[in-house]
Amino acid sequence: LAVGLVTYGTDLNGEVIDAGYDLVDNKITLKTKTLKIKKGKSAKIKASANGAKLKFKKVKGNKKIKVAKSGKVTAKAKKGTYKIKVKITAAKTANYKAASKTVTLTIKVK
Q: Quick one: three-class SS letters along 11-75?
């Protein structure tokens, strides 16, 4: 486990505050860059971030391709290849800071 050093500080009254461990930056790893989906069906984006809960949000792309917060991608677009941008956000954990990353995915609709 990667944890930082213990830090201390003072509040407005001058009392010492033990801030606990410094949190380490989290890294989001995308395991899927291309999804093959039949029209009207779904597939899941595969990603991880040191055990942190992930949320997904489409930020750019075809309006007939939907991305749920869980990472489930549903394609109602015509047959073809599409590019979408998705923002992945990792929640803060006991040892890691919250993190976010925007990725480009290729969606192949069959």
A: CCCCCEEEEEECCECCCCEECCCEEEECCCCEEECCEECCCCCEEEEEEECCCCEEECCCCEEEE
C-alpha–C-alpha distance, residues 2 and 95, integer Å: 7
Residue tagged 């291309």 (tokens)? 34
Q: How far apart are CA 36 and CA 45, in angstroms?
A: 11
Q: How many CB atoms lie within 10 A of CB 32?
A: 15
DSSP element (H, E) containing 98: none
With bands split at pLDDT 50, 70 and 90, how would you rate the model's confidence at 94?
A: confident
Give the integer Cα–Cα distance in Å for 10 and 19. Answer: 10
**Cα 57 from Cα 27, distance rounded (Å):** 18
The reported pTM is 0.78
Q: Tens digit of pLDDT for each residue in 7-63? A: 555 556 666 555 555 678 889 999 989 999 999 999 999 999 988 999 999 999 999
